[in-house]
């Protein structure tokens, strides 16, 4: 029987604790087998879904739609496809969403996306472009209700088939302006978001405090904590400098002077303990950002 992908919200509703992984395509011009071989390895683990991202900072990595399709069609796993709208107007967005529909993709992580390094800011005209991720969520939800962009200038949307996308969004527990973050999350949920995945965090208390603030604002969607299982000091530096994550001093000190294999063990032990603490704090699951290091995924999943 052909595998029927499920909505992430349905998966979360059925399970007490989910385990999922993020992968990214190889750089344009590289063989698709690079990522497909990794997904083949991941398919042997007990994962609830795999997300496929374009890569950070607008990097040149095509293939998210067909990879998302193959995750389900070839490997029998639920997929979550990242959708970055910064470089597209609303008509481009609609066309791309239709492509997702043809490929049977049900789960989308809706993000504005980072600006491409070294290039000028993309022009985003109000009414023609989605200014924020919340507006992208709203456009996807409009298609879920069968409302499409009219062929010519018109005040009313064009009626079409209802799509059935499950919409996820990014969440930021360590945002510099938490009040703004909470307002943004309110708008994302009001526009149709059904779940969220956080930016990488290294502290279960930070996650719990963030979720408590969401709940106090009446935001009740599932929030999956994003975990970056660092395996060496260089990874810690990237997490802090590029992604602005707060890495505990205890972990950084524990890594000082260690050989690579020792450092790897310390980091994996830390990640496993963090996942366990998050579960105790009520997290519905964990999402592992592993930068395609499948051996790390296997080591962590086998223990949690």
Kindly summarize this structure in a few lines.
The protein is of the alpha/beta class and 304 residues long. The protein contains eleven helices and ten strands.
List the helices and strands and how they pair.
Layout: H1 8-14, E1 18-23, H2 33-42, E2 49-52, H3 64-73, E3 79-84, H4 90-102, E4 107-111, H5 133-144, E5 147-148, E6 158-159, E7 166-171, H6 178-191, E8 195-200, H7 204-216, E9 223-227, H8 233-241, H9 249-255, H10 260-280, E10 285-289, H11 294-301
Parallel strand pairs: 1-2, 1-10, 2-3, 3-4, 4-7, 7-8, 8-9, 9-10
Antiparallel strand pairs: 5-6
Helix pairs in contact: 4-5, 5-6, 7-10, 10-11
**Strands side by side in the biggest sheet:** 1-2-3-4-7-8-9-10
What is the chain-wise order of helices and strands?
Answer: HEHEHEHEHEEEHEHEHHHEH
From the 3D structure, determine the CATH topology: TIM Barrel
CATH top level class name: Alpha Beta
The end-to-end span amounts to 30 Å
How many independent structural domains? 1
What global shape is seen?
Answer: globular
Descriptive account of the structure:
There is one protein chain. The protein has eleven helices and ten strands. 41% of the residues lie in helices and 15% in strands. The two termini are 30 Å apart. The chain has helices at 8-14, 33-42, 64-73, 90-102, 133-144, 178-191, 204-216, 233-241, 249-255, 260-280, 294-301, and strands spanning 18-23, 49-52, 79-84, 107-111, 147-148, 158-159, 166-171, 195-200, 223-227, 285-289. The chain has one domain: Alpha-Beta Barrel (TIM Barrel). With 304 residues, it is α/β, with parallel strands linked by helices. The longest helix is centred in the C-terminal third of the chain and has 21 residues, at 260-280. Helix 5 (133-144) runs parallel beside helix 6 (178-191), helix 7 runs parallel beside helix 10 (260-280) and helix 10 (260-280) packs across helix 11. The strands form two sheets. It has an eight-stranded parallel beta barrel, surrounded by five helices. The chain has a two-stranded antiparallel sheet with strand order 5-6.
């Amino acid at each position: 029987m052909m595998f029927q992908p499920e909505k992430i919200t349905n998966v979360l509703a059925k399970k007490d604790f989910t385990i999922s992984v993020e992968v990214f395509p190889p750089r344009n011009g590289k063989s698709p087998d690079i990522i497909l071989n990794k997904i083949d390895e991941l398919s042997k683990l007990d994962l609830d879904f795999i997300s496929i991202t374009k890569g950070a900072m607008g990097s040149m990595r095509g293939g998210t739609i067909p990879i998302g399709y193959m995750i389900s069609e070839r490997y029998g796993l639920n997929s979550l496809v990242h959708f970055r709208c910064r470089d597209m107007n609303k008509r481009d967005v609609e066309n791309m969403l239709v492509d997702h529909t043809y490929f049977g993709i049900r789960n989308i992580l809706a993000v504005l996306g980072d600006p491409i390094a070294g290039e000028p800011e993309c022009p985003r005209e109000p009414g023609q472009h989605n200014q924020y991720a919340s507006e992208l969520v709203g456009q996807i939800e409009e298609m879920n209700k069968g409302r499409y962009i009219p062929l010519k200038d018109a005040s009313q949307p064009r009626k079409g088939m209802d799509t059935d996308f499950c919409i996820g969004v990014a969440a930021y527990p360590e945002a510099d302006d938490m009040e703004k973050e909470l307002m943004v999350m309110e708008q994302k949920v009001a526009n149709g978001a059904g779940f969220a995945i956080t930016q990488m965090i290294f502290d279960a208390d930070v996650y719990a405090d963030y979720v408590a603030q969401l709940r106090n604002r009446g935001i009740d969607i599932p929030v999956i904590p994003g975990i970056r299982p660092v395996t060496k000091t260089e990874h810690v530096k990237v997490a802090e400098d590029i992604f602005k994550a707060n890495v505990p001093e205890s972990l950084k000190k524990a890594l000082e002077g260690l050989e690579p294999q020792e450092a790897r063990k310390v980091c994996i032990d830390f990640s496993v303990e963090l996942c366990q603490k998050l579960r105790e704090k009520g997290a519905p699951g964990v999402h592992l950002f592993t930068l395609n290091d499948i051996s790390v995924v296997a080591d962590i999943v086998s223990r949690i």
